[in-house]
Amino acid sequence: MTEVSLWALGGIGLVAGLLGSALGVGGGAFIVPMLTLALHLPIHIAIGSSLVAIVATSCTATSIYTKNRLTNLKLGLLLETATTPGAIIGGFIVVLLASSVLNALFGVILIYIAYTMAVSQPAIAEDSRHKGNSVKPDNTSTNLSNWRAGSYYDQSLDKVVTYKIRHIPQGLGSGFFTGTLSSLLGIGGGAVQVPILNLVMGLPMKATIATSSFMMAITATVGALIHYYHGNVYPIIVAPLVIGVFLGARAGTELAQRARGILLKRIFAGFLFITAILMFLKAANII
């Protein structure tokens, strides 16, 4: 590849790492469109490269979030029992689909998620202190009472935020779908996992971002290995992406901890909406 392309890949990785770690989405929703729209790479290669970059983003972000006790590790591991099998199946399905189908599917998924995040209210207020979710947990969540409550210190609010996990069966049920989309579209699953954790399971946005990043480190690794098996991962593309992602992820984690959760949601929704429109245009061969 040319020197310009290598710098472009590094720049794409830098922005993806910043957005991915700050929003808990891994950066795939930025990497895949940019590789296909700006650098004109085949979408199957873009997806494989994106998953490798997401592993770097997620591992970098998770190391910081876990140190600051934002990550709910037990919940993440529980949900991964459903997400990982989905990632395996999605990795083998993707090679059977045409590029136009993948572009259109990418757009449909992102437009739905952008709408959901833009109009829905938070499942739990992030400015509460030492208070749990006012919604009564379901029976399965209650049976898991050893760990269904969580808390973290919010730097932007200078308060301790506590929450209770709810709707665990729904979270597990959506996990398989999330894993499948992760390997199928190269988004790491965060674009789907974030709304589920925040809106359905009741985690505040910052705990959602941290837990989603942890889960993506596992899910994206599975998908990346399968794409490597299919020949969709090229070191010359992945290397500058990963370098940029690593640098961006360090800054993104700081942004996520200092910014207010509602602001992060608005950024997330707006970004996904724009990306979805671009992918629809790509599927229709307009751009």
Question: What class would the helix/strand composition place it in?
Answer: mainly alpha
The CA-CA distance between the termini, in Å, is 22 Å
Return residue spans where pLDDT drops below 50 for at least 5 consecutive residues. Answer: 123-137, 139-144
Largest sheet: 2 strands, antiparallel
Protein model, in words:
The protein is mostly helical and about 290 residues long. The protein has one domain (about 5-120, about 165-285). It has eleven helices and two strands. The chain has helices at about 5-25, 30-35, 45-65, 75-95, 100-120, 140-145, 170-185, 190-200, 205-230, 235-260, 260-285; strands at about 150-155, 160-165. A two-stranded antiparallel ribbon has the order 1-2. Helix 1 (about 5-25) packs parallel to helix 10 and helix 8 packs antiparallel against helix 9. The longest helix has 25 residues, at about 45-65. The chain is globular and about 50 Å long. The chain starts with a helix and ends with a helix. Mean pLDDT is about 80; it is low at about 125-135 and about 140-145.
